[in-house]
Specification:
The protein has 738 residues and is α+β, with helices and mostly antiparallel strands. The chain has 23 helices and eleven strands. Helix 1 crosses helix 2. The protein starts with a helix and ends in a 30-residue tail after the last helix.
């Protein structure tokens, strides 16, 4: 592995113009594809094959052809001025005029007046009209949206307060450019402090931006064909930017180190890619495995998000291995420190690092490993406690800022019609086996109406064949209330008795039931998925480090950091601790997709730091250093760069906390605190403490297993013979430009 990557680094350095041109062509092609591709449609956020709500949804589409259960809709809420009623002649005329105008709009299937649908609140202060469309929200034309907006504006001119809910005019979150700009700006400051060179700071930023540009271009180009949403692209850019900067950072840092050890530029580039590049490959591989593994959960959106982000990571790895050494070849001395450029590279050699902050910290931990270990475990354990109260859901309009019309429409309907009105349950009754289908459907509806927690049930509506009935049930509680979840389970529990009594069966669906089922399925999948990736980490790290106990230690550290980050997410977004500081206006259940996605990403990032830090310890150990001294050497060479990489990731992820999309905000916060815990607590304290206690046993591997595992040479042992300084390797000379 190290020898192969060494050749890639040298080759990219020598053919720098060709490599740079190829990446420029790829970037241009991706950009052109994104510019000419049609807009992406709906990504099916809540759909998950196999759950009851999805089966019922599919049955509605089968038995009620042409109903287009997935069509866009708009719920227009009319609120009369204080002391007035919507039933007053002037207000009623304005509402009727709206219904007539909206009904004539393009792609409209129907527009139902509140006065014919009994959609007026008891105090007549609020009413709503429903507009349904023949197509999904992603296929709704601009003309259709404009026609609805014009009708709404005319209704507002009458003196009514008019708010719009539903999917037809649902506001989309910003693409995240501001968040990315903040992250890049903070990363630039960290890189400049770390390297003390504008060129060394700018190169990782430049290559990371190139990688993200290619990834986002590909996602936008394929978005329509594959159903990739803006959320999918935002998450891919978030990860691509973070790992792209970090991977380039490690290669540039190792290049500077090899140059200061006296190697010629081309040789230093080869050694940097052969050693740090090996760690980049395996670190990237762990992230890709974790993200691609999300596809086994069975949620289409999660699969798209995982594979898209994995693709961005792959691009980041390839850029770090090829474009970074190519650019180093163009300016081989520019990335060096001022001291190295001023005094000459060969005059700047590494000392034993006695005064290095990383080595001093390592010696501090080695002197008191038990105390440090206990402090880490206790601290992260306390932070993880809120995770035991984790509640999953799918926040809707109630999670949007109050500045949006969707949130105001949600609040107005909850106030006028009750909190459960925003999340009605759709019940589809299959009465094929009933002797009297109408009586059977009525019995089912009556039984559900009599269930505690149900406010009202609509009359059953039959399909053309008369073998299926459809009706809605309004809960007394809000969609994300735990009592609503209990109500859905209670209604389903009544199915057996009603089937015996009537010969008919039924299933519960609708957005509320769909979100409940998806959340439950994902919660059930969380522990198995966590187990799978822990096993994968054990196998992969066993291959990398030729050790049994180092991978076990890494897996335990990962579990500590991921549970602590989940606990922090619950404390802020569910319990509301400090929520106002992050702009969280509505606390409640955590987005159901978020924890399992967070686990996958944190696994990959945790293994990143494990590979980068411990590979230097392994390198020192196999070159003859004692275990304790190997730990110090690893920290002397890697601690500063790992800390800088972690700070960069925290900065990038924190930038997305300001997103208007609740899932992006939650994941941004979760990833930021996860990197904080993993890099600064687990890798910087827990890892050296455990290695200090294990000593030589940390690197033990059974002989039989040692023979079975292939050797990948992450520590660069195969390059030892090639590591002669510049004066001993004339063939490696290369012209130097500043």
């Amino acid at each position: 592995m190290a020898t192969f990557l060494y050749r890639i680094g040298r080759g990219a350095f020598r053919r720098r113009w060709l490599v740079t041109l190829l990446w420029a062509v790829i970037l241009g092609t991706a950009g052109a594809g994104a510019a000419t591709a049609p807009a992406a449609g709906d990504d099916g956020t809540s759909f998950m094959p196999g759950i009851e709500a999805q089966r019922a949804f599919d049955l509605i589409g089968e038995r009620f052809p042409g109903s287009d259960a997935d069509g866009a809709d708009a719920r227009i809420v009319f609120i009369a001025p204080d002391g007035e009623k919507v039933t007053a002649a002037g207000h009623r005329a304005a509402i009727d005029a709206f219904v007539a105008t909206a009904g004539d709009g393009p792609q409209v299937a129907s527009a139902v007046s509140p006065f014919t649908a009994n959609a007026v609140s008891e105090d007549a202060s609020t009413a709503y009209a429903t507009v349904t469309y023949e197509v999904s929200s992603g296929d709704l034309t601009e003309a259709g949206r404009t026609a609805l907006e014009t009708a709404v504006d005319e209704a507002r001119d009458s003196g009514l307060t008019v708010e719009v809910g539903g999917s037809a005019l649902s506001s989309q979150p910003a693409a995240g450019g501001a968040a990315e700009a903040v992250g890049v700006g903070l990363a630039a400051v960290v890189l400049l402090i770390t390297f003390g060179s504008l060129a060394a700071a700018g190169l990782p930023l430049l290559t990371a931006v190139v990688g993200v540009g290619i990834s986002m271009g590909a996602i936008l180009a394929l978005g329509s064909a594959l159903g990739l949403s803006m959320t999918t692209g935002t998450l891919a850019s978030m990860l691509g930017l973070a790992v792209g900067i970090d991977y380039a950072l490690f290669v540039v840092s190792r290049y500077r180190e090899e140059r200061e050890n006296g190697h010629e530029p081309r040789e230093a580039a080869g050694l940097a890619v052969g050693t740090a590049g090996s760690a980049v490959v395996f670190a990237g591989l762990t992230v890709v495995i974790a993200l691609a593994g999300l596809s086994v959960v069975g949620v289409p959106m999660l699969t798209k998000m995982g594979l898209s982000a994995a693709g961005a990571v792959v691009v980041g790895v390839l850029v770090a291995l090829t474009l970074v050494p190519a650019l180093l070849g163009m300016w081989p001395n520019a990335v060096l420190s001022r001291k190295a450029r001023r005094r000459g590279v060969a005059a700047v050699r590494h000392t034993d690092g006695a005064g290095n902050g990383g080595s001093r910290w390592a010696r501090f931990v080695l002197r008191r490993p038990v105390a440090v270990l206990l402090a880490c475990v206790a601290g992260l354990g306390v932070l993880a406690l809120p995770a035991t109260d984790l509640q999953l859901g799918m926040p809707g309009a109630e999670a949007k800022p109050v500045s949006t019309t969707e949130r105001r429409a949600y609040d107005a309907l909850a106030e006028g019609f009750g909190p459960g009105f925003n999340g009605p349950l759709t019940v589809v009754a299959d009465v094929k086996g009933a002797s009297d289908p109408e009586a059977a459907a009525t019995t089912v509806a009556d039984a559900i109406r009599d269930t505690d927690g149900v406010v009202s049930v609509s009359p059953p509506r039959f399909n053309a064949e008369g073998d299926t009935a459809l009706f809605s049930a309004v809960p007394a509680t809000a969609p994300n209330d735990e009592r609503t979840k209990d109500l859905v389970q209670t209604i389903r529990a009544e199915r057996g008795g009603l089937e015996d009594e009537t010969g008919a069966t039924f299933e519960v669906t609708g957005s509320t039931a769909m979100n409940i089922d998806v959340a439950q399925a994902l919660q059930d999948a969380l522990v198995p998925y966590l187990s799978v990736i822990v096993v994968l980490s054990l196998l992969l790290l066993m291959l990398v480090f030729r050790s049994v106990l180092v991978p076990v230690k890494a897996a335990v550290g990962f579990l500590l950091s991921v549970l602590a980050s989940l606990g922090a997410v619950v404390a802020v977004f569910q319990w509301g601790w400090g929520a106002g500081l992050l702009g969280v206006e509505q606390t409640g259940p955590i987005m159901s997709l978020m924890p399992i996605f967070l686990v996958g990403i944190v696994f990959g990032l945790a293994m990143d730091y494990e590979v980068f830090l411990v590979s230097r310890m392994r390198e020192a150990y196999v070159h003859g250093e004692r275990p304790a001294q190997a730990v110090v050497s690893g920290f002397r060479h890697s601690a500063r760069v790992v800390v800088a990489a972690a700070v960069i990731m925290i900065a990038v992820f924190s930038g997305f906390v300001g997103s208007g999309e609740s899932m992006i905000k939650t994941i941004g916060f979760g990833l930021a605190v996860a990197v904080l815990f993993d890099a600064f607590v687990v890798r910087m304290a827990f890892v050296p403490a455990v290695l200090a206690l294990l000593g030589d046993k940390a690197w033990w591997l059974p002989r039989r297993l040692d023979r079975l595992l292939p050797r990948v040479d992450v520590e660069g042992t195969g390059l030892t013979g090639r590591s002669a300084p510049a004066g001993e390797d004339r063939s490696a000379r290369e012209p130097v430009r500043t």
